[in-house]
């Protein structure tokens, strides 16, 4: 039976449309860092490269490559860590060209550095791309976080962040850093803007 994150890990990926506290343990990711406007071609290319690797890992057993502890699963959603260059902070209007990001796709526990390297080898042979050399495999643990489901345009996220900041103030929680995580539950290439579902998350103490 296929492992489905939507059913098994709702606490991480399907929060309510109001702030909640969650403890995020250590997960493994394939990731790629960059900067600039998310509407650019380079950003789309980065997403494409990550998915090539994610599906190469998922399909390995079907292609005759055994992975210790493998089980079939639904590929995890795209995530992004977002920051701003120093000169763009504190301005009233967000300058998207000054955004700094790390895009990532979580991997099941059985994925190791060795599995990642094998996937990289496969993709480089079948679909070489200049960005592949910038992708790395890393474990991350976020710990205590405040998260909330944002429904609608990415441009309206500021309103949801304000709700989250008020929740933190009311509950004696301090936001560790304004670098925040977004998890894209909807496929933004196929979903109407007003129906987009994005998990927004701050690390707190």
TrEMBL record:
Gene3D superfamilies: Regulatory factor, effector binding domain (3.20.80.10)
Domain of life (superkingdom): Bacteria
InterPro entries named in the record: GyrI-like, GyrI-like_CCH_Lin2189-like, Reg_factor_effector_dom_sf
Location of the GyrI-like small molecule binding domain: 18-200
Annotated protein name in UniProt: GyrI-like domain-containing protein
UniProt organism field: Clostridium hominis
Lineage start: Bacteria, Bacillati, Bacillota, Clostridia, Eubacteriales
